Amino acid sequence: MSAAMGGPVVLDPYTLPSDDNVNPYAFSVDLNGEWFLQRGKMVAYYGRIDFHGLGHGPLDRLISVNFHSPLHAADWVVAQGQGKMLLADRAFDINSYDLADGNLTIRSGNLLAFQPGLSLKQSIIPGFLTLIGTGKFVAASNGAVVFVEPPVRVDPQALVGWADCPSPCHHYDHAYLRGVLGGVRMLTGLGGVSGEEHQFEFVGAGQVLLQSSERLMDDIDTGVVPRQPGVPAGQPHSGL
Amino acid sequence: MALFRLQGSRVLAVDLSGDAVKAKNGAMVAYDGKMTFKRLTGGGDGLRGIVTRRITGESMTVMEVRGHGVCWFADRASEVNLVRLTGEKLYVEASNLLCTEATLRTGTTFTGLRGASEGHGLFTTTVEGTGQAALVSDGPAVVLRVSPQFPLQVDPGAYVAHTGNLRQHFQSGVNWRTFAGEASGEAFQIRFEGDGLVYVQPSERTTVGGQV
């Protein structure tokens, strides 16, 4: 490779970063033990690493401690062993975050991998997952991630997740769609709607993570919640 | 001599002074000067190339660009990676090869199971000689060194190209649990051993093996 031509950087196990980004689109994990990853996000590795599907096997105990949404366990694998492992997802931007005895809720499609110090749970909000505990996790986003402090209102498609925020709620801003003329406008689109009438609102202490585009990552099935009354998205039994 | 340079990360600019480059058909986005574009049949490898490429399915529509001036190439906003070859052989999928200097020879070679698992067929394109080549990848390629003490495992869907003296074989982690419905999604990898460089893209093509 010619350095004068700005040739590519050649990496080996010593020069690959340890639990850090190689470039904005690839993350290098210094594996010594276990990591949880979403299926199919490993692109290459050095060393001795085994990939186990979640289920019955030698990792039963680990999984029962860290994994609390068994219904989508099929989307996750455990990488076990020693070595350097590269993670990437369809050339999307990848970032890692550290949680210290904290919690973070993230859109299911954005989460790529996490350390066993964290435990993964389904969020009450459908389509989102919550990580609780201490450790590092890796998330993908469409464009770079921006951190914002509440109070803030965000576009639903730009929301990646939030940490420590108590109040994710809907907000509608369509005062100009009231009245007879406004009603006609909303129903027919005559006069125009801005497409930004609906937002998510966050207040309280914490951080909100936004991606710099409004193109959503494909959702990953977060599993079904029990069909009980009072459980969001779990339809009550008929006859109750 | 043709001079390859990157203009941004997704456009390749080639300075030509009367010489020629081989480029993916239709990859020219702009040119300045006087250029001729000639479609080459069979990847530009002559009659033998036509026949091998037809038989192997490693089809490559290539044009020869000759002239004086600057020609810019790009392919669906993919990232462009420059590779300088000094006598060694570059193995690359035909779909990932954007442009090569006319001094480089291209051909096809048998890859065995790896090609099949990538859904690319059993053959791959080789580039040989001294000069520069440009590859495209979905996201900037990461270049990983393989040495005797550090063999490398690569997901078939993320593999782009490799150079050097590498042995590759298919590694499978398929066991009874795969068939019990507990597939890990990482059951197949290509294992590279020897001395060389492997280009990996931060994205996975949909592969036959990737679902297992």
Description:
The complex is a heterodimer of chains A (240) and B (212). With 240 residues, chain A is mostly beta strands. Chain A folds into two domains: 20-141, Double-stranded beta-helix (4-Layer Sandwich), CATH 3.60.160; 143-214, no CATH class. Chain A contains two helices and 15 strands. Chain A has helices spanning 60-66, 179-188, and strands at residues 10-11, 20-23, 26-38, 42-53, 76-87, 93-107, 111-114, 118-122, 128-141, 145-148, 152-154, 159-163, 169-172, 198-202, 207-211. In chain A, the strands form two sheets. In chain A, strands 2, 3, 4, 5, 6, 7, 8, 9, 10, 12 and 15 form an eleven-stranded antiparallel sheet that branches. Chain A has a three-stranded antiparallel sheet with strand order 11-14-13, with no helix packed on it. Chain B has 212 residues and is mainly β. Chain B has a single domain (3-211), classed as 4-Layer Sandwich (Double-stranded beta-helix). Chain B contains three helices and twelve strands. Chain B has helices at 46-56, 113-117, 176-179, and strands at 3-7, 11-24, 28-40, 62-73, 79-92, 97-101, 105-110, 123-137, 142-146, 152-154, 159-172, 188-200. In chain B, strands 1, 2, 3, 4, 5, 6, 7, 8, 9, 10, 11 and 12 form a twelve-stranded antiparallel sheet that branches. The longest helix of chain B is centred in the N-terminal third of the chain and has 11 residues, at 46-56. The radius of gyration of chain B is 18 Å and the shape is globular. Chain B starts with a strand and ends in a 12-residue tail after the last strand. Mean pLDDT of chain B is 80; it is low at 177-182 and 208-212. Strand 4 (42-53) of chain A pairs antiparallel with strand 10 of chain B, so a sheet runs across the interface.
Put the structure in a nutshell:
The complex is a heterodimer of chains A (240) and B (212). Chain A is mostly beta strands and 240 residues long. Chain A has 2 helices and 15 strands.
